[in-house]
Amino acid sequence: MPLNDLPEGCIANALSFTTPQDVGRLSAVSPIFMSAAVSDVVWERFLPRDLESILSTSPDGSRLLASAASKKELYFSLCENPVLVDNGRKSFSLEKKSGKKCCRLSARDLLITWGDAPRYWTWYSDPASRFPEVAELISVCWLEIRAKINTSMLSPTTLHTAYLVLKFSRDTYCDGLDDQPVEVAMKLDGEESCTRTVSWNAERRWGQERGDGWLEIELGEFFTKEGKDEELEIRVFDGSSHWKRGLIVEGIEIRPKQGARGAGRSMMHRMDFILGVGMLKPTSF
Predict the structure, then answer these.
(1) Per-residue pLDDT in tens (0 to 9) along the chain, 285 residues
(2) Under 8 Å CB-to-CB from 180, ≥6 apart: which residues?
(3) Is 182 helix (H, G, I), strand (E, B) or coil?
(4) Where does the F-box domain lie (predicted)?
(5) b/e per residue, 115-150, with b = 16+ CB within 10 A?
(6) What is the pTM assigned to this prediction?
C-alpha cells in the first residue's frame, strides 16, 4: 500500500514509537507526517505514565493538566516551563528531545550542614531562581551538602547526570572557593555508585552560565533500572581547613545524560517495519 493511502491514525501510531525529535524531523519531510504529528496518540506516548500523579499534587501542575488544549501543548509546556511540585521543594520538567524526566531539588530540599544557623548560612528570595528561596554561605569551614531522591521521580532505564546548581556572590569575596578538592559521593540504595573529586574554581566559573543566570558543577552519573524504585543519595563535601564564603546554592538538578540515548535510528527502523513500507531511509534524517 502506498504511504499516502495509509490512514492517519496508522501513521500517528507509528510515529508514537519514535522519539519527539524524530517526529519533528519527519514532520519537515512530508505533510503526511506533519498532519499525523499533532495527534494526541503520538504525544501521549511521549508523556510519562505517572505524569498526572506528579502534577496533581501541585496547584500549577493541576492547572496545566486542566488547561492544556492537547497532549502536544502539554508536552512542550513541560519542556519549556518547569513546574514546582512537592510543596515547591522540587521542580519537574521534560527533556525536549526525548521526553525523559528532569528534576531539580531546591536548596530547601537539601540537607545543608549548619544550614539553619544564621551565622553560617542565610536564606532569601532570588528573582533568578525558580524556587522561593536560595541559600547563601556566610562562612563555614566544614561545607557539606546532602540530597536524597527516589528514582521513581526519574525516567527508568536511563543514564542520568546530577549537577549542583550554584553561583557566587558579587557582593561578598568568595574566599576559600578556589582549587581545593571537593569530594562527591553518590549511592543507590546504600551502595556506592559514583565517587569523584571536583573543584569550586570560583574565579574560572564566571561567564560559564547555563543561560538562566546559574552555574553548574557536574557531580556524577547513575543509571535507573526498569521497575525498581531506589533511593539515590548525593553528598558534596569540602572539609578543607579554609574558611569558605560567598557560595549561593539553588539546588541539585538531575537530568538525562546528553548523548546517552542513541535509540533514534533503531526507532526509525522500527517505524519502517510497523508501516510495512520501504520509504523511510536512515540517510533522510
Answers:
(1) 566 678 888 989 999 999 999 999 988 888 888 989 999 999 999 999 999 999 988 999 999 999 999 999 999 999 999 999 999 999 999 999 999 999 999 999 999 999 999 999 999 999 999 999 999 999 999 999 999 999 999 999 999 999 999 999 887 667 778 777 899 999 999 888 889 999 887 555 654 667 788 999 999 999 999 988 999 999 999 998 889 999 999 999 999 998 765 444 444 454 554 455 444 433 333
(2) 199, 200, 238, 240, 242
(3) strand
(4) 1-46
(5) beeeebbeeeebeebbbeebbbbbebeebbbebebe
(6) 0.86
With cell 533503531, the residue in question is 266
What's the distance, CA 21 to chain centroid?
17
User: Going along 101-157, which residue ranges are E strands?
Assistant: 101-106, 111-112, 121-124, 134-137, 143-150
Residues across the chain:
285
The answer to whether the beta carbons of residues 250 and 111 sit under 8 Å apart is no
**Cα separation of 150 and 142, whole Å?**
27
CA distance 222 to 245: 30
